[in-house]
Amino acid sequence: MTVDREKLHALLMWYKEALGDNLIAAIIADREGLIMDAISSSVDKTVKEDLVGGLSALVEPVLERITKEFSSGSFGTGTFDTDEYRLIFSEAGEHAVFVTVLDGLSMVDPILPTAYLTAEKIARIFDGRTVSPVIPKIIIEKQDSKIVREINKLKKIKSKGDEYAFKLILGGDGAVGKTSMVHRFVEDTFQSDYKGTIGVSIMKKQCNFEGLGTSVRFVIWDLAGQTQFKRVRKSYLANAEVGILVYDVTRRETYDNITDWYEEIKKVCSKISLILVGNKIDLEDQREVNMEEGQRLADNLNISYIETSAKTGENINDSFEILALKMIKTYFTLDNV
Ligand code: G3D
Ligand code: MG
């Protein structure tokens, strides 16, 4: 089996970037506990090597337990606390386990969606599928559960996401690519000509997270081309739980209008979970808004940011998956597995 090691490493670098100070180290190991790649927060090379060496000694016995106890089925994700650290073990497909090492004082829950997304990507790299190494910051607005710290207990995390379908809406100026994004995600095809009837088209799509053993269902509401947002706003936005704010990176005015869209939507749905998307990155030579500006706006609004192309499909699935992971709110643990 040949694995794209460069991509694995790029992914780890993005993971470190996304987690910031919380992260002590991240390790990709195979099922035998052999370390395939690792990064640590330390910049000092010797400290780094010692840390990773020490951590592998720590990780090995837990991995052994996981492998032994879950040889028949899938493990999913689990946590393990030591005196010094908090560890998250995430199954990353058949061949690998992704280990996140956090400081002992860190909270595990806000990290989980990012760890899941990364584990899914590692699984895809091992399978030789195309995957973008970009790991956006996943911002969790509210926390329903808390995984308490208990030394030396291996806990399996079960997540609930599939009992319910979430209403998803889109905001952003005309022609930024909202409909194209939805069609890409729902059918994985790109069409340049959509002629919807007046009103809203409703599409359903399920996001499956194999490593998590769960899925999230979306009911996506998309305004047809001629529909005036102002006229249908109330019924369109009513009870929406997740939303995507889209602008076109080649047209600055669509970026400038995002704050208005944000406020308009928040007025009706104060609890909605949003993500900001800069679309049409395939048109790099026509770009008017750079990535830093997109990230800055998202930071100001306290939401996640990702750049996409509905034309090539780049990061389209990721943007919906980030929203899905944010919706998996109720984690509960089973002790002593
Ligand atoms: P909207 O739903 O936000 O109004 P649409 O936007 O999805 O209808 O897209 C508007 C136009 O932008 C369409 O072109 C569509 O093909 C194009 N488009 C959407 N996403 C992308 C992208 O990522 N890259 C490029 N290059 N074009 C994109 P037409 O010509 O059909 O109006
Ligand atoms: Mg549209």
Question: What does the model show?
Answer:
- This protein is α/β, with parallel strands linked by helices and 337 residues long.
- It has two domains: 5-134, Beta-Lactamase, CATH 3.30.450.30; 151-335, P-loop containing nucleotide triphosphate hydrolases (Rossmann fold, 3-Layer(aba) Sandwich).
- Helix content is 34%, strand content 27%.
- The protein has helices at 5-19, 45-69, 112-126, 178-187, 229-237, 252-256, 258-268, 291-301, 316-327; strands spanning 23-30, 35-40, 77-81, 85-92, 96-103, 154-160, 165-171, 200-209, 214-223, 242-248, 273-279, 304-307, 330-334.
- Strands 2-1-5-4-3-6-13 form a seven-stranded antiparallel β-sheet, sandwiched between helices. A six-stranded mixed β-sheet has the order 8-9-7-10-11-12, sandwiched between helices.
- Helix 1 (5-19) packs antiparallel against helix 3 (112-126) and helix 3 crosses helix 9 (316-327).
- The longest helix is centred in the first third of the chain and has 25 residues, at 45-69.
- The protein is globular.
- The chain starts with a helix and ends with a strand.
- The structure holds guanosine-3'-monophosphate-5'-diphosphate and magnesium ion.
- Guanosine-3'-monophosphate-5'-diphosphate binds at residues 174-180, 192-194, 279-280, 282-283, 309-311.
